[in-house]
Amino acid sequence: MSTESAMMPSRTTSEPNEDSVELGDNNTTRTRTNETGWIRLFVHCDQMFGGGLLHICYRVFDVILLLIGLNQGDQTCHISNNLTSTTLTLLVFYLIDFGIIFLNFFRCILPSHHRLTEEEKSEQSRRVSSLRSLFLVFKLIPVLFGIGHIVISNIPQDIECQTMRFCVGMVCFSTILLMIMPPTKPVLPQRRSCRLECFIISFVLFVNGMYFLSVSLAMRNVEQSTCIYGNASSLYTGAPLKTYGSIGLIIFSCTTAIHIINGLISQLCNRLTSGRRIYSYYYAFQYFLTYFASFVIIYYLAAGALFLFHPRSGQPCRLDAPALYRVLLIWEWIRVLTPLVAVPLFLILCCVGVFFGFVLSYCLPASVTVPLLEVIRNWLSSAPVHIPRDPPATQAGIDAIPVVLFSKEPDPYNQTECAICQTSFKIDEHVKKLQCGHFFHSECVRTWLSITGICPVCRHRT
């Protein structure tokens, strides 16, 4: 076997999404299917929509709720001044947001846009995202005003304008929850070990199992009509907590089943010969299913905030079933506060880690601390991280990356596995070598660089 580098053959087409052909060990060709092409398509569409593709479903549903709230017929609303002003202000902000999104979309389909480089397109998309973020900051003013008005003011005995009050409350609370629990963009699926997968599934089973057990016990023997949904009046003026709890049992049972099925399929596909290709197709279905589940949970928790917080605070159902009210209120706070606590806790752990690192450096000899810190650094840097702010590499730059034979090329980093898929390299396997000297599987690094143009290990710009 020659020790010279085996270079990638020239492409026969200029289409960036076409299947590529790689040189094999016996000079035979094999076609590599574009496994994660839908992720690149998503990133492209997200840039065309100014970074608002994930939020369009939420925005449309919010607009529908606000329009339903405005449709009051001939009823005279005693508190219409504040609620109507908040509704109209939110509608104006949503129209501005949609206007920015679709103006950017039409600009992206113009012929002049296609002549821009990838860096210029990414910079243009970032400017549009910054403009939308600015309007989001201003939109928080009517959102916080709406939440304050709904929570502070007492709910009247009649049902006039309660549809508007309910719809505005859903929109305002869901906006805050969406900032706390934003939808995630699709990234390269990470290969987890069986032990880590079992730990994640066990944690999900424990949390959702405790929720299922506590809510089921609290709903037992609750038959009062004040706790059960009967008509629109019980939804707008009351708090049907038993019906709300039953829906929560269905939602979180489904999310638990999704976690278990995804974990089992991931482990099974990683052990099959063509498992990566099968899992890439399933991952698309998994992502959209998870996105839909997150969408439902956001508005479910927003409805729970209306039912459980002041001024409703459970309404008559709280007196008829106090245990059910307390359990649902506790779980509402747990679901909402957990993401808020996670970020400060992570920062605290980082500070503690830095502190103990300095302590170890002074208490232990360098022969112990240096290898230990090097292992930790390599472990942290090898995790694939999605950095949306960094523009993707050009298709020409990706194609120009040389293909070499693993173990036949000098390796100053002593690499043994691909940092993207975390699969060990084989002897004389064809891999791609970046300018920084790191090796990756061809299909892995091609998909990675089409999303962000930096090395996933050392962050070197390709």
From TrEMBL:
Residues 1-28 are annotated as: Disordered. InterPro entries: RING_finger_E3_ligase, Znf_RING, Znf_RING/FYVE/PHD. Residues 418-459 form the RING-type domain. Residues 1-15 have a biased composition (Polar residues). Keywords: Membrane, Metal-binding, Transmembrane, Transmembrane helix, Zinc, Zinc-finger. Gene3D superfamilies: Zinc/RING finger domain, C3HC4 (zinc finger). The chain crosses the membrane at residues 48-70, 90-110, 131-151, 163-182, 194-213, 244-265, 285-309, 341-364. It comes from the Eukaryota. One of its GO terms (cellular component) is nucleus. One of its GO terms (molecular function) is zinc ion binding. GO terms for biological process: ubiquitin-dependent protein catabolic process. This is RING-type domain-containing protein. It comes from Adineta ricciae (Rotifer).
